[in-house]
Design a protein that fits this description.
Layout lengths: L11 E2 L2 E2 L11 H4 L5 H16 L4 H12 L16 H18 L3 H4 L10 E6 L7 E2 L1 H7 L14 H15 L7 E6 L6 E9 L7 E9 L5 H9 L3 H11 L4 H8 L3 H15 L4 H16 L20 E4 L5 E8 L4 E6 L10 H9 L2 E7 L15 H16 L4 E6 L3 H10 L4 E7 L8 H5 L3 H12 L4 H15 L1 H8 L4 H7 L2 H10 L11 H11 L4 H6 L4 E6 L7 H8 L6 E5 L6 H4 L1 H8 L7
Parallel strand pairs: 10-11, 10-12, 12-13, 13-14, 14-15
Antiparallel strand pairs: 1-2, 3-4, 3-7, 5-6, 6-7, 8-9, 9-11
Helix pairs in contact: 2-3, 2-4, 4-12, 4-18, 10-11, 14-15, 17-22, 18-19, 18-22
């Protein structure tokens, strides 16, 4: 188990967690109300590293987390007591780095790819015999492998190589689990190395396994990319390289002929220039940039076409701040404008029959792709999420010359619709919300959620510092399971949603549309995290101030916002027209779009 590593970086032992130097256990009752016990913390950290190694274990973390953290949630919803545990946050950051490293070699493509498709992690092919079938450049650099390399050339202990040899042979022959994860220590660097062994299609007579590791290699020419992206000096880029490859400051200083204090000073300058707050965060940013840098440059591509959906192309513009914005359109090009807000899952497509009906009914549907989704670029961290998203909607609509438009909002996108109507009251003719979330007020309203929705949203409110890891692990799990199985696992608590998802047209729309969130070359985990944190802040002032007419269609089987919660909030927002629809959940719009269109008709601007 990864948590058993006796490495100072991961100061954690099975069943017992030693606090980092300078930290101590909470002593006051107030501290105890916000901090798990030593034993609970140790169990959580164990699960963190298990998830980092294998995202399939995320549900185990969910169960442990809820059992240990949920009792700490207290106080009124408008003034939540947030989890304040630097130790858990530090371990979360470290585990997140390993999750990042594995994401580039995910199961849905890596085991069917050639070695050239794994550009940054050391990887090789083997049948378990003495000679490797092939290896990539990172393996040559990290492991010192040359032409005709043998398994025994790997910089591991003899017993570790023999263990690896046996696992490779079994996996290649189909006599073991599909994927096996091992931990060993590099004799070259002294650091722990995690390897994952999985089957791969082989054109030759022998069955092979693909072995991928956490050993990273700096891509050729990447120095210039980092230098230009952050405005760093050549010396600073070399320090970033060392940190990214896992070298301690002492080793970096020795290699550069500088004192450790000098390098630490340079690290502080680097953190400032990159707008990061820790070395772990810096590594995550650089790995993300590395992912982008190693992908081939492509222009705008068509939205994935599957089955009966018409192929559409993204359109692009530059926002006033210079960022790239994307959107798609369908329906009647000269029709009455309707803005569709795609939810945090990036559901930019409708069922094919709904898209055709929009054309027949004279609707021009405009779907701006929000910051961090698809190829729309994220806002700077200094920009408020609500304000930034609202400005992007305005920019796209002004670019298109749209003067008046109705808005359809899903879930907590209601806050964007209301913000847009307050910023441009002359623009928004009406807001139609489908399975919307209103600003929650109490811990009890989170407890009513189904466990997956509660796991993400309650932590967005009460433990936002650890949310990025949870979201990233969820996205990795989705890739591991496939989006269809992932949806069934997350939304299985709503029979209505499962029934809707079984409809081929609805499933097609969701799978194709969500490519801007979770696709072959898109992983919008940071954008999703920002969306969740923003949705769980108090935005009741928007609801109270909204002047545009608002109709909310709510499901009676919504796993995120149950009927009881909506009824509690209805008493506070009496100016909203809220209607419940039977046998519907979060997929209300996709399932009942004909009824949604009928209600929307009153809001569409007259041509």
């Amino acid at each position: 188990m990864f948590a058993a590593l006796r490495r100072q970086d991961f100061a954690c032992r099975k069943g017992k967690l030693a606090p980092p130097q300078g930290m101590s256990e909470p002593k006051s009752p107030a501290d105890a109300a916000q901090t798990p016990s030593r034993e609970d913390r140790a169990e959580i950290v164990d699960r963190l590293y298990e998830v980092a190694l294998d995202p399939i274990r995320l549900e185990d973390l969910l169960d442990v987390w809820e059992g240990r953290i949920a009792p700490l949630r207290s106080g009124p919803g408008h003034d939540p007591v947030q989890l304040d545990d630097p130790e858990i946050e530090a371990h979360m950051a470290r585990a997140s780095v390993f999750l990042d490293r594995f994401e580039a070699t995910r199961d849905d493509g890596a085991y069917r790819s050639v070695l050239e498709d794994i550009p940054r992690s050391a990887a090789f092919l083997s049948d378990g015999g003495p000679v490797l079938a092939g290896h990539n450049r990172p393996a040559a650099v990290a492991f010192g492998l040359g032409e005709g390399a043998r398994l025994s050339d790997l910089p591991f202990e003899v017993e570790d190589i023999e263990l690896l040899r046996g696992v490779i042979a079994k996996v290649a022959a189909g006599k073991a689990e599909k994927v096996i994860t091992l931990r060993m220590r590099s004799m070259k660097t002294g650091s722990p190395v995690i390897v994952r062994v999985g089957p791969v299609e082989s054109p030759g007579p022998k069955s092979l396994a693909l072995v991928m590791s956490t050993e990273l290699v700096w891509p050729e020419g990447f120095e210039e990319t980092v230098k230009e992206a952050f405005g760093l000096t050549a010396a600073e880029v070399e320090i970033v390289r060392g940190i990214t490859l896992g070298l301690p400051v002492k080793d970096i200083a020795e290699a550069r002929g500088r004192s450790a204090e000098t390098v630490r000073t340079q690290v502080r300058s680097i953190l400032s220039k990159t707008e990061t707050h820790s070395q772990s965060e810096l590594v995550r940013v650089v790995l993300g940039l590395m992912d982008v840098a190693v992908l081939p440059s492509e222009g705008a591509v068509a939205v994935a076409k599957a089955g009966t959906l018409e192929a559409l192309s993204f359109q692009q513009m530059r926002a006033p701040d210079g960022r790239r914005l994307e959107w798609i359109e369908f329906g009647q090009p000269s029709g009455a404008p309707c803005v569709f807000m795609h939810l945090d899952f990036g559901l930019i497509r409708w069922p094919a029959s709904a898209e055709r009906a929009a054309r027949r009914r004279g609707m021009r549907v405009i779907v701006p792709v929000r910051a961090g989704y698809g190829r729309t670029e994220l806002h700077a961290k200094t920009v408020g999420h609500l304000e930034g998203v609202t400005a992007d909607y305005i920019a796209v609509l002004e670019h298109l010359g749209v003067k008046r438009a109705a808005v359809i909002a899903l879930g907590a996108d209601l806050r964007f619709a209301m913000s847009l109507s307050l910023e441009r009251p002359e623009l928004v003719t009406g807001i139609l919300g489908c399975a919307c979330q209103l600003p929650l007020r109490t811990p009890a309203q989170y407890e009513r959620m189904d466990k997956w929705q509660r796991f993400i949203l309650a932590n967005a409110r009460y433990a936002p510092k650890i949310l990025p890891f949870l979201v990233k692990a969820g996205f990795s799990l989705a890739r591991r399971l496939g989006k269809e199985k992932f949806f069934a696992q997350v939304n299985g608590g709503s029979p209505a949603d499962m029934e809707a998802f079984a409809d081929p047209e609805i499933r097609e729309a969701m799978l194709a549309g969500s490519e801007v969130c979770l696709g072959e070359r898109v992983l919008a985990s940071e954008a999703f995290t920002r969306e969740c944190i923003g949705s769980e802040k108090d935005w009741s002032h928007l609801v109270k101030r909204v002047q545009a007419p608002v109709v909310l269609l709510q499901g009676d089987q919504d796993p995120q916002t149950p009927v009881q919660t909506i009824r509690e909030l209805m008493a506070e927002y009496t100016h909203l027209d809220i209607r419940f629809m039977p046998n519907t959940g979060q997929l209300l719009f996709f399932k009942e779009w004909p009824q949604v269109f009928d209600v929307l008709e009153r809001f569409l601007p007259r041509r």
